[in-house]
Amino acid sequence: MPLKKSLILLTMTLLALAQGCNEQSTQTSPSSEVTPAVASRNSAAVDDKPAYGDMLINGSIGDASVLLPVLASDSSSGEINGLIYNGLVKYDKDINLVGELAEKWDVSEDKLKIRFFLKKGVKWHDGKPFTAKDVEYTYKIYVDPKTPTAYSTDFLKVTEFKVLDDYTVEAVYDKPYAPALGSWGQGMLPSHLLEGEDITKSPLKRHPIGTGPYKFKDWVTGEKITVDSFHDYFEGRPYIDRVMTRIIPDLATMFLELKALSIDQMGLTPLQYVRQTNTKWFKDNFNKYKYLGFGYSYLGYNLQDWKFKDKRVRQALTMAIDRESIVQGVLLGLGAVTDSPYKPDTYWYDQNVKKFPYDPEKAKQMLAEAGWKETNDEGVLLKDGKPFEFTIITNHGNDIRKNAAIIIQRDLKKVGIKVHIRVIEWAAFLKNFINKRNFEACLLGWGIGIDPSQIDIWNSKKTGESELNFINYQNPEVDRLLDLGASTYDRQERKKYYDKFQEIIAEDQPYTFLFVQYALPIINSRFHGIEPAPVGIGYNFTKWYVPKRLQKYTIQP
Amino acid sequence: MFLNEDFVRRIGKNKMAMAGLCMVAFLFCVALFENELAPYPPDRIDTSNILAPPTYQHLLGTDVLGRDVLSRIIHGAGVSLSVGFVAVGISTLLGVMLGALSGYYGGALDKAVMRFVDVMLCFPSFFLILAVIAFIGPSIWNIMIVIGITSWMGVARLVRAEFLSIRERDYVQAAISQGASDARIIFLHILPNAMAPILVAATLGIASAVLIESGLSFLGIGVQPPDPSWGNMLTEGKDNIEIAWWLSLFPGMAILITVMGYNMLGEGIRDSLDPRLRR
Amino acid sequence: MRFLVKRIALMIPTLIGITIISFTVMKMAPGDPTSLMTDLNPNMNEEAVKRIRAHYGLDQPWHVQYLKWLKNMAVLDFGRSFAPDNRPVIDKIAERIPITLFINILSMVLIFSVSIPIGVISAVKQNSMFDRVSSLIVFIGFAVPTFWLALLMMILFGVKLDWLPISGFRSLNFARLSPIGQVLDIGKHLVMPIFVSAFGGLAGMSRYMRSNMLEVIRQDYITTARAKGLDERTVIFKHAFRNALLPVITLLGLSVPGLIGGSVIFETIFAIPGMGQLFYQSVMMRDYPTIMGILVIGAALTLVGNLLADILYSWADPRIRVND
Questions:
Q1: pTM of this structure
Q2: Do both A263 and A196 map to the same domain?
Q3: Which of residues 167-196 of A touch C (CB under 8 A)?
């Protein structure tokens, strides 16, 4: 789905954001033995001109929670909100910032002022014009301490916000802040409907009004959410008339629905991708896509725990874990081992970052150097008479993480470390374990933002309760580099800081970086116009279409 | 005592009870000799051979990490049996205690206990169990305890009824008139005579505890990995039902056989005890 | 009428007991329920935490909290959900309860209409082939994990044969179907869920009916009726059947909690947006107000079921006017 702006750096789930090394693995081929309705689906492109109409039915594992981007932090809501709202800026298919609701912008010489010139003639779904007042309201609601939002950090850096005229606004910062521009991609909210209201009680939470390509139609809780194309959309009417998101809380059931052709699109699991979708029938009816996702999984060590204080121990742990076998066994090869908190195929990734390949012998040696020499009768390493034994916690509902943990357990046993695994449901996981620092090691994932700033995860001060440096990583040099990176606009200079940062992280190994997963969307082949790009496939969703002769549903508004 | 020769003879003739007994005995053997019977260690991972269909190497196929399904089912038997026994131990203990007090003393105590039973019976017990387990955290011990304290009501009612009727019998009345202590009467005179229905209820209770445990594990808040539990295995089966039927079929059958074994044994014992139903 | 009033009056202490247990369950949750809400909202400040604590009365001793909670409950105010949608709990439950009730009622109808004949025939022809086969099926029915049955059915009828839809409870084009089409559509969607939810009950009920019937057949008055030379058919249906049926009615009330409890599993598997699914989601999210609301309402539904059963019972057998 069109996730246009992934500013959500810190989502803990791996957002299946599409990107990079795209490969349309399944070439659709003409076929004649399928049912008449789809018989000539893929033949002769002559009359397959873009046409309005039809509906795309999307499968979603969870229901949305709230359809106001400022309040929503779950990916289900995020996907729907992406269709309904626009930001001032967005990332284009090559991950460059371009204007969306903003026609253009000026950044002052000293990088302290950003002035946005808004597009004229943009309408809200209720017909009212979009103006600077809406931007002002949106800014204010994000920084309002009463607003329960997860996205205030960037906007709180704004020291002054000015409305210059109906279509010009200016944000002032007290020092240069490189992620600032991208932060204005957050969805703009309609001030004429929300001003003076308590946003947490607003009816717009369930009946949103935005400026985006699709306008809200209805929401049957736990069942489906429907949006219809907005004919007055400022970038032109989207071809697909309706997008329905069906909530199917179970991936196996969702896959059966896909096979029954009652949903058009879903994200596949590696097993479904490798083992269940290579039949001729699937090739005739669906196109599969595959690209490295914007997120990585890691094993994080609680650095306050005495066992993990020595960096030699952490390096040894990384070397003792056969990460390649996790990628092969759990992801079935649909992923890549990673050694850095950046996405391996992006600009910010440091190609020279130090790697710790699988080497259990060397690991044992290093553990011995760090004092883990003797073993007890179970074969578990001892230091000062205490065994090397710890628990990995991970969240419920993610089999890939659970299975990765089981393989790690096996690998570490080979070098004499005893590992226990606890799978905990999400809310309790955050509340009782992560936020309370009540864990030894955790297996989790971070979404990788498009902007390289990762202060919230690595800064020495971000270790308070509910903050994200929950492993308590402390390194003044890293703090300094990240601050420099955030205040540098020049890309090349900025990259130097982040390269250095990655080198230090690699040496310190506060995490064992595990892998980056591929996003594996599958889409019914009647949809045309899908053009994989570095940012994924959803960026041009409004240009997707179904040729007239292949249209399956007739939409009556 | 109910374990007299007559009973043994009757139950020996009861085909259902015998069939149930065989199934249960079989499971016990499996659980007892799990290490000898399982062809592989249950946690032996082989990522190069995941989701392999049944072959000579792996009679029931392999799972998503290439572990041997047969070995995991064998090791799961122990988990299932211990959950069943401990949970039922707890619920029977609670039920007998409350039922005995209620039936023996009667009066306000009886009223209070029975009211409590009514209230507990009103809750959809699976809801209650799910909520409590999620709150206190899933672990095999928590599951046993929670299933135990949410399923004692039937036993309590039964024991109470038995006590009410046995209490009126001559020999009990005689004991009372001779000034025997309450404890003596309860444990020596009444309880032994109420054992039979308790045994039946407990046997059936094990069956339902096994089912509940598998349901909880299936929903992901039961036994934690990497411990094998039939319910957990079925979750994996569900996720791969189209490509790995063996992952759904065999653990499901293991549950089926276990639960059926206990049910048949329980019902068989009941039939053998209840002379009215005999031909 | 007096019976009814008395019966309803008797429900009140039970209802209070239900709320006490629900409240205890809530107190079992580690820590403070509001900390969950605040933990997930980075911007929740001290002030807001206090406000929420006061709103839920968490700054007061537990008996005061309980009474306050009870007072709100009396007017069906369960508070607002902790889920991000923050809606009133009663709204969330109200929109999901009809489908769950509908499925449960239908499955109960199915249970009764199938299991009673099976039970009667098995009893009358005890040890016949029919009895043996049905006993075996009953034992399997008792022992089958419902989720396993659901999976096997989905594969067979949904995927292999493609006869029935796999999930949800109505089609996408539902609104455009004719009224008859709509009924058929819902019917098709509910075949599997209803069957799965009824299967266990089916086994239990027919077993129960069989043993009741066996017991009744051995009673003196049946022997007398036979001795009088009445034909077997009259004996069985006029005398035995009626009396064997009576205790089954009580089971009607008792089976409500089991059915509702089972809805967690089949609603999750079949993606039916009912109360069971909501409960599972709430438990996973630790949405305490919703969990409590469903627990209380689920138990109250059982009470209503019991009441209905009692009314039915007294109607069917006027001799019985409960005096406890």
A1: 0.80
A2: no
A3: none
